[in-house]
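Module 6 notes. Inverse folding takes a fixed backbone as the condition and produces residue identities as the prediction. Think of it as a translation problem where the source language is geometry and the target language is the twenty amino acids. Below is one complete input and output pair. Work through it position by position during the lab.
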């Protein structure tokens, strides 16, 4: 692909994971966005990313003396941000809020524009304070800055745009600004909505209905999110309460889910929404230079010794774990990595569900597991999951580790240096799961439920393992029992014997894991699909 004649795309995202210490991200959605705009730079395509400049980012979450997570926030300063000298104004609660616009291409990414309300002119400078830090009014204020402010920023910077891409529903208010612009030019609401739809494409990420954000219309109105539209016009777009995903689906010409299975799930979830755009599948991908260890790439490409390259990286991980936790794992024994957001559907503790089965392996150290992950600051259930993992570490101090304050550094270390990458969500609730791609390309073998991206990649017993058979039921008790049995069968019956008794086969599987994923799940393929199926309208 070349830049010539390609539509230029304004890409809106609440978060960007570009570097561990650039705290503009919380999790998978942001990591995807960060990888996306690095990949866009690599192949030179005109994608213009827009986001918010978070003062404190997402929570720093550590473990206290009782083994429970606690949150803390710090102000961060970044000296590499360029001041564009441009400011735009949005109206929030009837007051002018001025947004300063920063720019950075510091991480090998397409120039990223970040809106910032933390300037002395503003009475409320805290709108861009904490990423996902608050609910309700504050979230809407952030979304006004991202959406309405984002469109105004593009105008003020005089950047021409052909397509607006909303990475998740957070940016839906950008469409309300596009509609307002057209109505100011003389269009009726109907005309403006129709024309705006032709410019927008939308990516949905969340297969859990409650995870799709909504707000009462009265609150949106009070905050200023109507932006000149009437209540009934807003209701036609997003319903009452106003659902950001429903709005995204009705404001776009086409939408996508982030894996084939997820697109199926999303089509079922939203089938009752009249007037929505079709949802196709474009599977997520990763920026390989960011996540894949060069020593593995070299060993793979030169047909070198993959196992010894891996052993070296695994040793570094073991050193890193010891530095962080004081626990020294055994480099000869199987090391399982598991890092994810602490959400119940991810079932971090499924492996502990039958102590009678797993305990002997943990006591002997034949199975070692390192966990990491944050709970949302306001999610008590998630916090209990973290506390439970920490208590498992105390119970099995030689073989279970929890690393606090999950970030991109921990993510990279674990997906490079573990032997096995474990993933056991309640199918079909994992939309994609890019950490598994990072692992696969590093020759870290996936052992996973057939959810998210894995059904597309898994050749069972050849490039990794599937847990179970894709069983689904809304009876979670039954599902958990079924899947925990399947997990033990796969892990103890197939993974362990290969690891301990057949190193040659293991190394062969590492090679297949890399071979079958390195192109298919790299950002270039994903970007080409977005251009071919979403951005270039037929
Ligand atoms: C890769 C990554 C994610 C996304 O991984 P999932 O498989 O979706 O859990 C989230 N957080 C960090 C820090 C990552 O590196």
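Target side of the pair, the amino acids:
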């Amino acid at each position: 692909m070349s830049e010539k004649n390609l539509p230029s795309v304004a890409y809106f995202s609440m978060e960007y994971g570009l570097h561990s210490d650039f705290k503009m991200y919380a999790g998978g959605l942001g990591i995807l966005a960060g990888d996306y705009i690095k990949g866009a730079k690599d192949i030179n395509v005109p994608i213009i990313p827009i986001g918010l400049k978070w003062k404190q980012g997402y929570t720093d979450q550590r473990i206290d003396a009782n083994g429970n997570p606690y949150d803390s926030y710090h102000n961060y300063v970044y000296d590499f941000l360029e001041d564009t000298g441009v400011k735009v104004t949005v109206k929030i609660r009837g007051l002018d809020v001025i947004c300063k616009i920063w720019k950075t291409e510091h991480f090998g990414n397409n120039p990223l524009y970040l809106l910032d309300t933390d300037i002395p002119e503003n009475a409320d400078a805290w709108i861009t304070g904490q990423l996902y830090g608050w609910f309700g009014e504050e979230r809407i204020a952030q979304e006004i800055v991202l959406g309405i402010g984002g469109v105004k920023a593009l105008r003020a910077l005089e950047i021409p745009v052909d397509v607006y891409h909303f990475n998740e529903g957070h940016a839906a208010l950008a469409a309300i600004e596009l509609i307002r612009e057209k109505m100011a030019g003389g269009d009726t609401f109907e005309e403006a909505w129709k024309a705006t739809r032709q410019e927008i494409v939308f990516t949905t990420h969340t297969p859990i209905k409650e995870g799709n954000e909504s707000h009462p219309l009265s609150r949106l109105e009070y905050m200023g999110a109507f932006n000149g539209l009437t209540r009934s016009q807003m209701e036609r777009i997003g319903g009452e309460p106003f659902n950001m995903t429903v709005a995204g689906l009705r404001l776009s010409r086409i939408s996508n889910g982030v894996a084939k299975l997820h697109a199926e799930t999303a089509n079922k979830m939203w089938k009752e929404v009249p007037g929505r755009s079709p949802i196709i599948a474009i599977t997520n991908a990763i920026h390989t230079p960011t996540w894949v260890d060069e020593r593995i790439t070299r060993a793979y490409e030169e047909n070198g010794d993959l196992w010894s390259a891996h052993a070296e990286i695994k040793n570094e991980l073991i050193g890193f774990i010891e530095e962080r936790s004081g626990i020294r794992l055994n480099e000869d024994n199987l090391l399982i990595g598991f890092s994810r957001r602490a959400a119940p559907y991810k079932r971090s503790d499924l492996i502990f569900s039958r102590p009678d089965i797993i305990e002997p392996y943990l006591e002997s150290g034949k199975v070692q597991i390192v966990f990491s992950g944050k709970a949302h600051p306001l999610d008590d259930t998630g916090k209990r999951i973290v506390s439970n993992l920490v208590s498992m570490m105390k119970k099995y101090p030689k073989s279970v580790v929890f690393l606090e304050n999950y970030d991109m550094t921990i993510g990279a270390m674990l997906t490079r240096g573990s032997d096995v990458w474990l993933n056991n969500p309640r199918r079909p609730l994992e939309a994609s799961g890019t950490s598994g791609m990072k692992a696969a390309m590093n020759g870290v073998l996936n052992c996973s439920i057939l959810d998210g991206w894995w059904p597309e990649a898994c050749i069972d017993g050849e490039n990794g393992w599937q847990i179970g058979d894709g069983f689904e039921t809304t009876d979670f008790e039954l599902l958990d029992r079924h899947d925990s049995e399947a997990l033990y069968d796969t892990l103890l019956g197939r993974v362990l014997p290969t690891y301990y008794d057949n190193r040659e086969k293991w190394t062969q599987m590492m090679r297949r894991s890399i071979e079958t994923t390195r192109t298919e799940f790299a950002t270039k393929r994903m970007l080409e699909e977005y251009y071919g199926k979403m951005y270039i309208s037929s």
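Reference fact for the lab report: The radius of gyration is 23 Å.
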